[in-house]
5-formyltetrahydrofolate cyclo-ligase
Amino acid sequence: MTADDLRETSAELAGRALELPELARAGTVAAYVSVGSEPGTLALLDTLRARGVRVLLPVLLPDNDLDWGRYEGEDSLARIRHGGRMDLFEPAGERLGPDAVTAADAVLLPGLAVDTRGMRLGRGGGSYDRVLARLERAGARPALVVLLYDTEVVEHVPEEPHDRPVHAVVTPSGVRRFGPET
């Protein structure tokens, strides 16, 4: 994809995501800053923040768990390199602790793919598996939404016993919901 394609796709994705009732009524959204070729999230983060939504962004800890900080605009992000991995954009301000995510009304999850059952394939570090387990232990029931390109919604992804399905996937062409309400 060219830089123009990425910008256009990011705008389409943000527009689709912002139409979700789960995001329209959310007071707090846990999200992430896209990196590399992931669908862009900054337009979405900025619009949520402009709506008065408290946006939490992850901070990768040495053990691959996630702490959280508040998104205060693109200027509040620090580019952090974690070992030999890719650079991540993390909030530079106060750390709120790993449990801060349990206050989210919606959690936007990164992924490589989602299948027709709503199972998400991550990057393999287990960070978001820990987030989902933390939410479950806390009895928190936020909307779980993955942002992907259309070609990343596939028939089947491998799953482990600890994996949990997401509620929806948003792509530039639309929203697909999973679960009993679909």
Remarks:
- The radius of gyration is 15 Å.
- Helices lie at 3-18, 21-24, 42-50, 127-138.
